[in-house]
Design goal:
4-stranded parallel sheet, 9-stranded antiparallel sheet, 3 domains, 11 helices, binds magnesium ion, binds adenosine-5'-diphosphate
Length: 395
């Protein structure tokens, strides 16, 4: 593909915070940005040169994006793959419609992992109520997940035993009939993720392995320290992520999430690694890279779609990322109050990112805080201080 030089217009499907941070990175490199998102006040639309406020499948809107943009990316995996397919007929798309369609469907995603030979949780795809009785008892205790449209732990129910499966199935059929996947619940010692970038020429680079803590199914904390995990584990995670990307003939930024299993009775002993899921875009767990690496996941996304060279990111600071959920705005009661930013910003190495969302809601991602420091201990200490000020529970 021909390199798109600064001055060209780069387009994104989806106008959330990932699109906003991507837009900042693209504009820093001298590109114009265009956003397609139905929300007139979308975080990315507010900071882009062009905002097409229309449905993702609106023919006139897709035509407008095709006419104005020189390449397209997505910041949201549930953007209809068809929109990417149509834009892909006339423009380079990174990623393309096919890998996004795989990431949108947990059953296709798992099948792809199996085809790549990477380890996955034992699972079964369930198409109908009649099929529930024949599920293997080995999959319990399990988690039943919708194959489509789940995120931040939504569209999932824990299932203790086969006897509880029909009720869980019914619970997930609420919004209309939906295929589900039952996964065995695994004993997690930790979770981690790898964000990689793959160019049109197949070259791959990746961010350092990120260790993630979820609360209520939502990412709460990411810690990124050199050698936080055993070298063999990190190597295995990076290799698996690269295998998954290569197998999809992926172009763009991809996040691969992993479970690190317990090894035996010892609480913190790390056992085998299992691939959980992929996101065909930059990821919440990679936000630290804006402040802790010499090239961020958003700049990598820009470089991929513009056909610019990819360079291996270098972690220059130990970092801790804290998600700022809407809950923090309600720490004092029902009335929304701005959290005490000046107090947090008085701490060393604190980088505050707010996404320009006007309405705080419980569980809504309003921003994040990255703490950078010379050592992991110092980053963690300041992060705990910031968390205490904001009312985020220690970890
Ligand atoms: P989402 O798309 O909502 O991120 P995930 O499948 O990643 O869905 O699940 C959210 C979180 O739930 C995971 O990060 C992990 O903490 C927990 N979880 C999901 N599946 C399993 C499993 N099979 N065993 C143990 N924990 C799980
Ligand atoms: Mg997840």
């Amino acid at each position: 593909m021909k390199t798109l030089l600064p001055g060209a217009t780069l387009g994104v499907l989806g106008g959330g915070q990932l699109g906003r941070m991507w837009s900042h990175a693209a504009q820093a490199l001298g590109y114009r940005t265009a956003v397609l998102d139905p929300d007139a006040h979308s975080p990315a639309g507010l900071v882009s040169h062009v905002h097409v406020a229309a449905d993702y499948l609106d023919p006139a809107a897709l035509q407008q994006m095709a006419a104005q943009c020189h390449a397209i990316t997505t910041e949201f995996e549930n953007v209809p793959a068809e929109a990417l397919h149509q834009l892909g007929l006339s423009l380079p798309c990174a990623p393309g419609a096919d890998p996004v369609a795989v990431a949108q469907d947990r059953a296709k995603e798992k099948a792809h992992f199996v085809a790549c030979g990477v380890p996955v949780a034992p699972h079964a795809v369930l198409h109908s109520e009649a099929g529930l009785v024949s599920v293997s008892p080995d999959l319990f205790p399990g988690i039943l997940k919708t194959t489509r449209l789940g995120y931040d732990g939504k569209g999932q129910v824990r299932v203790a035993s086969l006897a509880d499966l029909p009720a869980a199935w019914q619970q997930l059929q609420g919004a209309g009939p939906t295929v589900c996947i039952l996964e065995k619940r695994l004993p997690l010692a930790a979770e981690c993720s790898v964000v990689l970038a793959r160019g049109f020429d197949g070259q791959m680079v990746h961010l350092p392995v990120q260790v993630n803590l979820h609360r209520d199914g939502i990412l709460a904390v990411t810690e990124v320290f050199a050698h936080a995990l055993p070298a063999a584990t990190e190597h295995q995670a990076v290799q698996a992520a690269c295998d998954v990307a290569r197998g999809l003939n992926y172009v763009g930024v991809l996040c691969v999430e992993f479970f690190l299993l317990h090894d035996g009775p010892e609480r913190d002993a790390l056992g085998p690694l299992v691939v959980n899921e992929i996101a065909p875009r930059p990821h919440n767990s990679g936000h630290h890279s804006i402040d802790s690496c010499d090239v961020s996941q958003f700049e990598l996304q820009v470089r991929c779609m513009a056909g610019l060279p990819l360079v291996q990111p270098r972690l220059h600071s130990a970092s801790v990322m804290l998600n700022l959920l809407g809950d923090l705005w309600f720490a004092q009661g029902d009335e929304a109050m701005e959290p005490p930013w000046p107090q947090v910003l008085a701490l060393p190495g604190v980088h505050l990112h707010l996404y320009g969302k006007t309405q705080a809601r419980t569980g809504r991602k309003m921003g994040h805080l990255t703490i950078t420091a010379a050592t992991p201990e110092a980053a963690k200490q300041v992060a705990l201080q910031a968390a205490a000020i904001l009312g985020i529970a220690a970890w």
